[in-house]
Amino acid sequence: MKKNLYIFGFLTLMVSCTGLPDFSNTPSISYNNVRIITTQVPGQLGIAKKDSVIISINYQDGDGDIGHTEEELKNVFKTQGDGFQNYMVDFYFKKNGKFEKIVPDDIIGGNIKFHLKEGTKPGPIEGVIDYSIDFYYNLYSGFKITGKQDTIKLGITIKDRALNVSNTTETPEFVIFK
To answer: Half-sphere exposure of 40 toward its Cβ, with a 13 Å CA cutoff?
Structure first.
């Protein structure tokens, strides 16, 4: 019994002595998954269908300065200008078997935020970011999409508070407006 306790204590000590991960201060991201949830919502012309596309990406950052606190979000446009985004999405539409990048009327992407604990020390972080984009079946003007079983894929890039830009990761192709 004592022998097992010593082994457990030794293993616990070994695990606690491992150092922090050595991530770059420039964020790194990779594709995790895409989920599509179709719902019906009230609209001006009655009930409308909506596809909520939830994109999950994995991230790593050496100094942990990804996302914004609530206070930073209040001031981000004052310090970075109206065009500041830290989660950018490129939209690709499949037409005649080939993907073409299109620019919708509305910006896709925005600002991600984390609820950081007061006094959190900077350091390496990793995790998953879920981001949702809504596509309304009857409100797709501005896109070159048909609104009926459109095949798309998305390219995602993030920017940290020091304005370091990550690599770009792409989703596989998927269908909206089924």
So the answer is: 3
Residue 38, in any domain of the structure: yes
For 65, residues 6+ apart whose C-beta sits below 8 A from its C-beta are: 25, 122, 160, 161, 162
DSSP three-state, residue 131 = strand
Residue 31 lies in a domain: yes
Beta strand pairing call for 98-102 and 28-43: unpaired
* The two three-digit tokens of residue 93, written as one number: 């539409």
3-state secondary structure of 128: strand
In a domain, 9, yes or no: no
Helices (H) and strands (E) in the chain, counts: 2, 9
pLDDT digits (tens, 9 = 90+) for 22-60: 899 999 999 999 999 999 888 777 787 888 999 999 999
Predicted model pTM: 0.76
